[in-house]
């Protein structure tokens, strides 16, 4: 048996991702859609696979080159992909498929591999895989008469629909001949190159020339990725996270994850309460050093989110621990009054004229006078350390400069770089939690909005990472990273649907 994947289109509803790659290479669960499909075919014992590509075909060829061992992969180019549809793409594979048993799939769908396996092994020869009882306006629906498919169309009303087609079709050699006869008639004689191949199927069903049965997928996972809503659904369905019900420790980033500025993410309080009710340990962490731990407790409380002082982890904690281990007392704190008071409360002299370190925090009260004083100390020999490395901080009005931008200022002006940067993604941010409580890393999950701090920390620690799109990171940013999050959510409130 052969397989054919129709993947020539533009995928405009996934811009800007599909401005730089074809839709079949868009990642779902960290793996391109076409890889999901070919892997499913391989697991079902199909090794002869035809791919019809068009838009950015060179990328498809390059990606597939040496990617799939044991697969006889043929890539056919639809040069007219701008003005044709998938019926014409299928027509281009006629010489390879006509008269053969084959499975057909559209190149924008991800399936539970078991669906393909069961469909291939089913003794029935001609079938359309369907999600029985489901109904979506965008999907192809089928209707049934006497056990056979009588119609296929997006326009079938709900009362007549058996369910959604999941764009996975099984044809025998005989039905293959019938199908290509109709496709050739439409393309060659009617000169209709811009229609769905399901139009040919519909004609054959109406004329009773093709007998196909529905194959019920029994609610197994699948998603057709047409737009970002579909992509979000796919990211949730085909995630790589260790089962959430086995997680015992949930570590939430604050800025951009639990809240943005002074606006809490809707549903966070309910989520935290649900997790606590299940006996989960909760921690909140932030690189933002403009507030003290207790101020974060107060801010969360004002938002309806319960938190204890010992559940707050901020980047300043690591700085203070480091300075105490180094027996350093004299520092200059380039930070807010709250940050300065935290250092005073911990026994540091922040008024010294000869500080050992200039400590750079996220100073939302920054003045030129502070920058000048810090610059003078640095030129006199004080060493620069920073509470974290974030370049920007998300606010409801947009991004604003954070410490990473201030560090660039000092490097450009003075040629000075920090000797140490604390906070995320440094493992020491969580070392006390891991060491003191002896937590199994599989039981920890970090939830955050940044790839270069939150995800990097999770990877350094060795635990799972959930990326939310409510702060710094956009879905198109994730598409460009090789190290994919274990789960992607539009915002953290969607986690409640997954924890039960």
Describe this structure in words.
The chain is an alpha/beta fold. The protein has 3 domains: 2-237, Alpha-Beta Complex (Spore Coat Polysaccharide Biosynthesis Protein SpsA, Chain A), CATH 3.90.550; 244-287 and 425-499, HAD superfamily/HAD-like (Rossmann fold); 316-421, 3-Layer(aba) Sandwich (Rossmann fold). Helix content is 34%, strand content 23%. The protein is built from 19 helices and 27 strands. Strands 1, 4, 5, 6, 8, 9, 10, 11 and 12 form a 9-stranded mixed sheet that branches. A 6-stranded parallel sheet has the order 18-17-14-25-26-27, sandwiched between helices. Helix 7 crosses helix 8 (197-206). The two termini are 41 Å apart.
Biggest pleated-sheet summary: 9 strands, mixed
* Number of strand elements: 27
CATH topology of the largest domain: Spore Coat Polysaccharide Biosynthesis Protein SpsA, Chain A
What class would the helix/strand composition place it in?
alpha/beta
Total of domains: 3
User: Could you estimate the helical fraction of the residues in percent?
Assistant: 25-40%
Unreliable stretches: none
How many alpha or pi helices?
A: 19
Q: Assign the CATH superfamily of the largest domain.
A: Spore Coat Polysaccharide Biosynthesis Protein SpsA, Chain A
Shape: elongated
Q: How many angstroms separate the termini?
A: 41 Å
Mean pLDDT score:
93
CA radius of gyration is 29 Å
* Proportion in β-strands: 15-25%
CATH class of the largest domain: Alpha Beta
Please give the CATH architecture of the largest domain: Alpha-Beta Complex
